[in-house]
Amino acid sequence: MAYILFTLSFVFLIIATVLYVTRSRWAPLLPFSSSYLYTQLPSNFQSDAESGLSSSTFNLADNIEAGDSRGGLDEEGKRQVQKIMRKKKVGFDEARRIWMQERFKKAGIAEDGLPRDPKFVSFS
């Protein structure tokens, strides 16, 4: 019995190794493409604007024209906004609004911008 278990384990190890080494040949033949699983996010304001992460109310043209050397928008924020855009089929402005509302909700902030803390006192 141990001989059969050892043989099966050894054969599985050999097959797994061969599949791992040759994955570049058979991976493109799979029914889903790797571009669907992973899309590279833009890394500067020019590519952010080209990928649809700009609008009339969130204009990146000023940053592009000024030659801003920063790395573009926040990577995690871009990823979340693009995910909302794909999942809910909405535009950039609506996806950004939904994302900000979710962030506010996690931080305990109401939609009007005030904290949800019942002990909060505001002197206006």
From TrEMBL:
Keyword Signal tagged: yes
Keywords: Signal
InterPro entries for the chain: DUF2015 (IPR018559)
Family designation: Belongs to the UPF0357 family.
Name by which UniProt lists this protein: Uncharacterized protein
Species the sequence originates in: Rhizodiscina lignyota
